Amino acid sequence: MKILVPLKRVADPDNANKVKIPAAGDKIETTGLEWKPNPFDEYALEAALRLTENGQTPKVRAGEVVVVTFGPKETEQTLRAALATGADRAIRIDTTDDKLDGDLVARALAALIEKEKPDVVVMGKQAVDGDSNQVGQILAELLDWPMATFAATIKEEAGALVVSREVDGGVATMRVKLPAIVTVDLRIVAPTSVYSTKTAATFKYNDGVRFAALPAIMAAKKKLLVEIKLADLAADQALKVEYKAFQAPPARKAGIKVKDVTELVTRLKNEAKVL
Amino acid sequence: MIEWSEMHLAIRDAFRRFVEAEIKPNLTELEHGDTPPYAVLRKMVETFGLADMARAKFAKDLAREARERDPGAPPRERKPSPEAGNEVAMQMIPIIELCHYCPGMVTALGVSMGLTARAITSRGTRVQKERWALPLLTLETIGAWAITEPSSGSDAFGAMLSTARRDGEGYVLNGSKTFITNGPYADTIVFICKLDEGNEPRERKIVSFILDKGMPGLTQSKPLRKMGLHSSPTGELFLEDVRVGKDRLIGETEEAQSRSGAKETFASERTGVAAMALGIVLQCQKLSIEYAKTRVQFGRPIGEFQLIQLKLAKMEVARMNLQNLVFRQIEMASAGKSMALAEASACKLYAAQAAMDVCLEAVQLFGGNGYMAEYQVEQLCRDAKVLQIYGGTDEIQVSQIARSLLAG
Ligand SMILES: Cc1cc2nc3c(=O)[nH]c(=O)nc-3n(C[C@H](O)[C@H](O)[C@H](O)COP(=O)(O)OP(=O)(O)OC[C@H]3O[C@@H](n4cnc5c(N)ncnc54)[C@H](O)[C@@H]3O)c2cc1C
Description:
The complex is a heterodimer. Chain A is α/β, with parallel strands linked by helices.
């Protein structure tokens, strides 16, 4: 199976307080930010790796995992890290971070997919910076491929994937025929969430995303990483989403201490009006 | 070398992620309790495939030695090789990252995989290397290296009382050792003592033996209470008529020049201190900058006061110097050179003092919070102090630097 995994780097979500908005309020100041891979994209990569291996022998890849990102030269660091973790090959679509929206990314990915012809695109359900949660869905529409969103588990079958997602009060399960788009949620990296046809049903993964071993980090330098110009994939680079203004969330008011449960209940009823 | 390569940064990020996931959340148990560090360290070794790398390097080193022993082989010369520099860099990076939180872990790891294993690989027989050094290099076993005694510290050889007496084909060992890193838990112990041939203690030969946990007559104490470095267990060893065969005498010869062996070990131990100091300083600096920006007094963030700025600037100077010392070590390895003892001493002296100064400044910058465990700088401060004591005290480094200057 050949899997394409789009990756995005985001400002370190653990240091969200470092995000600054200039006085003009027209953008987010990105200089000086620490970049990390979008966590949901890391989960997508982990799921793709699990789908292309026997869990017992994770160094042997059955099929191919190709990672792709949009951005300037520095974003290659994100790709190299993915190559070290186990991806086979990487593509960087050269552009600047602020000249993109979900629609343009999806259109460029669709053009790339025409060339690469993956069996599945596994991607994060959303990026934790803009939280748009759109690219997977737009992409499925453009390609007219089946889609499964917010996957919590994926099981490979011949020519299809059985994907489940958590819904209120239960789990919804569907079978999507390949080629397909799957967007993943955080439970996808639990020990028994993803099984390729090669991995025994009794096998349990470590919880979370895998670490790259040191020799793999060194070997990643030699793996193929190509650059494609955005213009070669999308002639029309007009953005459909226009960001009018950015605003920091209002500072949270200090909390109060209540005397006892009675006071708590009264305040929840009368002031917070949640009871 | 003026900066880390992209690959080094990738390795740094990987170790940083490991430290934040596995060590940071358990810092209280590791640094304020009695939890030994070995489980986390073994997980690190497994995660990054370090055991396989150690096995491969071990096999390569053995093969090289075999080639060199061949009488027709050309004399060994160290050629410049970026490979060797890279190897040093890959040792330094985990040291730096671990020292953001647990300098003690580096001590425990360094004594086991570094000092103890090296004492065996540099002088031992092939059988000894395979039996004891390889499991140490993969962290399957934990090692301790024991030279210090209650009455011999800085004057390690002069005042040493521990003895080995010949006994048929083997030896009988007696003595006590103290301040021994990993002493309470070690599976493999390198015990350094004097060969008692009925001569004056000052004239006795130095010999080293390899001991196993549980040998009759060997007692390993509980961890000693100490000021800091709690993630590195330190203890005492007592030997009462421990009988050993010649197969446990390192090199299987009484002429193995253990004195110079121990000195080489000192030099290599000293070079790791710059990387440790750098990790400690990086963390103090990061915490201090955040605090200086957010702590408000007299209506302003304290970072706006010049006396606070002075502390931050001094930390930056220390950081730059330490970073450059680390780069120099990598560069020297790439060039096929090793540091002379006096230079290693100067590096250790500077690094230990710089780390201590920065930690004290960080505690001061945090005010009352600096004195509280919650803010971590007090822990790093207690940990940093040991850098001025072990591996040769500051005073001993000074005298070694001066001796080399005056020798010319
Ligand atoms: C946490 C920790 C871990 C350790 N781990 C190990 C280990 O794994 N294995 C091991 O063998 N040892 C270990 N040590 C011991 C360490 O190497 C010694 O503590 C150190 O060498 C100093 O010896 P000492 O404590 O006997 O001090 P002393 O030698 O008694 O020194 C006391 C003071 O006198 C000064 N002094 C001594 N001689 C001179 C001189 N000639 N000129 C000027 N000043 C002098 C010293 O600098 C010091 O200030 C460890 C120590 C600690 C604290």
